[in-house]
Amino acid sequence: MASPTQKFQQNRALAEGEAEMSFIDHLEALRWHIIRAAIAVVVFSLVAFFNKQFLFHDLILGPSRSDFWTYQTFCKIGHLFGSTDPCENQVNFIIQNREMSGQLTMHISTSFIVGICLAFPYLFWELWRFVKPGLYPHERANSRGAVLFVSILFILGLLFGYYIAAPLSINFLASYTVDATIQNQIDLQSYLSTLTTMTLSCAFVFELPMIVFFLAKAGLVTPELMTLYRKHAIVVILIIAAIITPPDISAQIIVTIPILLLYELSIHIARVVRRNSAARLNQELAVQNANPVG
Fold first, then answer.
1. Can you state the subunit structure given in the record (predicted)?
2. Helix (H, G, I), strand (E, B), or coil: what is residue 221?
3. Helix (H, G, I), strand (E, B), or coil: what is residue 150?
């Protein structure tokens, strides 16, 4: 019966054997991963394209109307605290198209962006399938559930961006005027650009815990380093929140709070990664001492 050390060496040799592929073989494997990912994006994009009513009237143009869930919720919260300010600043602007093929182009491009968002969990899964064979068995075990957590954080970021960051930005920018005689008539492309930028920015910012997880696994980030530079990180987070949101203090605070919580969660994740790495190293040393070679 093989000893634990021999089993570990056999597993490591197996992982190295799986990784011993020619450059052409790697390209061929990558090509099929890309093809499958592209098919998924096309399928979801077509689903979005043929549901034009829901895609634009309900989803895309939702934050442009006063009956949007976010505005109604802030209005109710304002009533609870005896304030009517959130209800007074109603969304009031016109979205227009100035190009002959503008609406068709926006329909195609928006469907493609929605297709990528819907297919993101599968896209990351295909990427993970390509990278996974090159990892050692313990690295695979420690990274179990990566696809699930990356997908969950991405979806949470999308929801936060769509229901919080984007409506606050759209409401502020659409209602801002330098003179009462100037009417806001927003171009369709400008509106879509603001909405997608706000939403996707939050989606990728919410991936901070997973980014820290992989950096901690690589030994590039430690909890002490993140704690030491916490004040600097707060400044960077405030800058990011200011970029994502309009120059409105309340909106910046609302966006800053979850990012700060994600940073604190990332510090905890870095601690867990280091503790697990130390425990695994001690276990390997104990096995080697119990079964000395020669």
1. Forms a complex with TatA.
2. coil
3. helix
- Among candidate residues 91, 102, 114, the one with its CA nearest the CA of residue 200: 114
Cα distances from 172 to residues 226, 241, 252, in angstroms, run 34, 15, 12
Contact 70, 63 (CB under 8 A): yes
pTM across the whole model:
0.81
- Same domain? For 100 and 238 the reply is no
Residues 223, 255 within the same domain: yes
In a domain, 19, yes or no: no
Q: Do residue 216 and residue 189 come from a single domain? A: no
Please tell me the total number of residues recorded for the chain in this structure.
Answer: 294
- Looking up tokens 């104990």 gives 286
Neighbours of 139 (CB within 10 A): 12
Domain boundary among 203, 224, 245: 203
The mean pLDDT value for 253-261 works out to 88
- pLDDT value, residue 294: 52
- Examine the domain organization and report whether 226 and 214 are in the same domain: yes
Domain-located, residue 284:
yes
For the chain, the domain total comes to 2
- Enter the tokens of residue 255: 């966006």
What residues make up the domain containing 49?
26-134+143-203
pLDDT class of 136 with cuts at 50, 70, 90:
confident
Q: How many helices (H) and strands (E) does the chain have?
A: 14, 2
Closest among 143, 189, 198 to 167, alpha carbons compared: 198
8, 287 Cβ separation under 8 angstroms: yes
| Domain termination site, one of 188, 203, 218 | 203
